[in-house]
Specification:
This protein is α/β, with parallel strands linked by helices. Helix content is 38%, strand content 16%. It binds cobalamin.
């Protein structure tokens, strides 16, 4: 029996073919905080137990998790980062933890726990008593101190219960210790983001998002304020990655790495020159919006490339202004394809784009038009997904209307597909049709491209074979 202060449980997800699997930075941050304060921890990574949500996987998860939980006697058990696609596994994890430890020392954290209006999911559906909303680093330490002093978690001011909601936010995120990175070599990077065979680490340099896209929870009900780490703090972490693990390649997973188009030149100049001055000699990639791309000029491109930037991942989503507006993106794509061509002409940076197919009034013809538009953008890689409906977003309210805050769970629990997603279906385009259009999109985009073979992943959503429906 292992006596430890904190046992962390990383919930699994139905992994898509070609997608990434990365130990969550959120848990790594919590581990550092616990360690800094002299507490002990261990973790069970359920992503190593199952990689899909077929019935047989879930049965195995329950049996194996129960066996492993019984090896520990923790003061506190933290489940997370919880996200919506994990519903079926979260139910099993909560049941197993309650059975082994009782409900007084279990809590959940992560994006889903932070969304206003979804508290019922933890209290009623999972039968748990405590959640932590927002940043978990300081909260977890306070919780451990409370329990070790002999009080119960109810007495802890940072914990949300069925009769009290508390949101935790650390103003200066430079103060947070860099995350632990257990088992880093087993991280899998998605096909389109994989560089030239180097070991890649992921980093997040901000919390929150300045935008309110209608399909995304980041800028809506998840984080309250946008906060960005200082350049010095970001470079310090890169230096630690290089020194400690020999890492020379980083993916910045921030929703928008350079977040303000009006400040694009200054921000790019400040970051890239500081990176060059540090002489770290590392490569990196980032996620940006199209309105930031539009601001980038010849000089910015050269500086980005010199400082090691090797790929830009654009959240394009739709290719017409009207469709973009529907998603809450009040921008146009004017000049984007020319700008991408310029990037490729004067540097060796790659540019990839994500696209969302489907939505309220979108017809099959509209979707084919978006696919054609995506092909004309001069991108190296494209990623297409159906419009998924996540709680805490305006698209959720539009789709579920009066069915309310619990409807998504009912839909996922009774779904014969295992992936834990709600697809935005309409009478004109149901999910089978949408999946067919996604296959067409990939075939059209990669037709004749140098990476055609590698990018044409079979059974992309890991659904075929055992689903009744003809996909
Ligand atoms: C990197 C990333 C990925 C990576 C790696 C995921 C991973 N294992 O870390 C990849 C590409 C694999 C991925 C995949 C997916 N992702 Co993702 N991903 C992100 C992203 C961009 C950053 C996550 C991160 O590192 N954040 C930084 C850390 C510090 O924040 P954090 O995780 O929230 O953790 C803090 C707190 O939440 C809290 N906390 C977190 N966990 C816990 C646990 C405990 C016990 C406690 C106490 C506290 C706590 O404390 C932490 C430190 O303060 C987020 C967006 C975002 N900005 O967060 C989306 C996000 C988490 N992903 C999302 C989604 C939907 C997915 C996919 C389903 C996408 C898809 N449709 O295929 C898949 C499924 C993956 C899965 N695990 O189920 C959504 C979740 C939305 C929701 N409603 O639940 C997000 C929020 C994006 C969005 N804006 O919609 N993702």
């Amino acid at each position: 029996m292992k006596n430890i202060d904190l046992l962390l449980i990383n919930p699994p997800f139905h992994r898509r073919n070609g997608s990434g699997s990365i130990f969550p930075l959120g848990l790594g941050y919590i581990m550092s905080s616990v360690m800094d304060n002299g507490f002990t921890y261990d973790f069970i990574d359920c992503c190593k137990l199952i990689g899909a949500f077929w019935q047989s996987d879930l049965v195995w998860l329950r049996a194996e998790l129960l066996r492993r939980l019984k090896e520990y006697n923790p003061v506190l058990v933290g489940i997370g980062p919880c996200i919506t696609t994990q519903v079926k596994a979260l139910k099993i994890i909560a049941e197993c933890c309650r059975e082994v430890y009782g409900e007084e020392r279990i809590y959940c954290g992560g994006p889903l726990a932070s969304i206003d209006g979804q508290e019922w999911f933890f209290f009623d559906f999972l039968g748990l008593k405590y959640i932590v909303k927002g940043d978990g680093e300081r909260a977890v330490v306070e919780m451990l101190r409370t329990l070790k002093n002999g009080s119960c978690l109810n007495a802890c001011g940072c914990v949300t219960t069925s009769d009290r909601t508390v949101y935790n936010e650390i103003d200066d995120i430079d103060e947070i210790s860099f995350p632990q990175r257990p088992d880093m070599l087993s991280n899998i990077i998605s096909t389109r983001r994989r560089g030239d065979g180097k070991i890649t680490a992921t980093m997040v340099t901000s919390r929150g998002c300045l935008y309110n896209c209608r399909y995304c929870v980041s800028g809506n009900l998840f984080y309250k304020h946008f906060r960005k780490r200082s350049i010095g703090n970001i470079l310090d972490e890169m230096a630690v990655l290089k020194k400690t693990y020999g890492i020379t390649d980083v993916i910045f997973y921030d929703d928008c790495f350079f977040a303000k188009p009006a400040k694009a030149h200054n921000d790019i100049y400040d970051f890239c020159t500081a990176l060059l001055e540090r002489n770290l000699d590392m490569t990196w990639q980032m996620e940006i919006r199209c309105d930031l791309l539009q601001q980038i000029d010849h000089e910015d491109i050269q500086l980005l490339y010199r400082s090691g930037c090797r790929q830009m991942n654009l959240g394009v989503e739709k290719t017409t202004s009207e469709a973009l507006k529907y998603l809450g993106k009040h921008i146009t794509l004017t000049d984007c394809s020319r700008k991408i061509q310029l990037i490729k002409d004067i540097s060796e940076m790659k540019v990839s784009g994500t696209f969302i197919l489907g939505g309220k009034d979108e017809t099959e013809e509209d979707i084919l038009h978006i696919i054609q538009g995506s092909k004309e953008m001069n991108l190296d890689f494209a990623h297409y997904s159906p419009l998924f409906v996540y709680p805490g977003t305006p698209i959720y309210d539009e789709y579920f209307g009066s069915a309310g805050a619990t409807a998504w769970v009912e839909s996922i629990m009774k779904d014969s597909w295992p992936w834990g997603e709600v697809v935005y279906e309409t009478p004109a385009v149901n999910r089978n049709k949408l999946m067919g259009l996604i296959n067409i999109a990939y075939s059209k985009f990669y037709e004749g491209s140098p990476c055609q073979e590698e990018s044409m992943v079979t059974d992309r959503f890991n659904l075929k074979g055992r689903c009744n429906e003809n996909l």
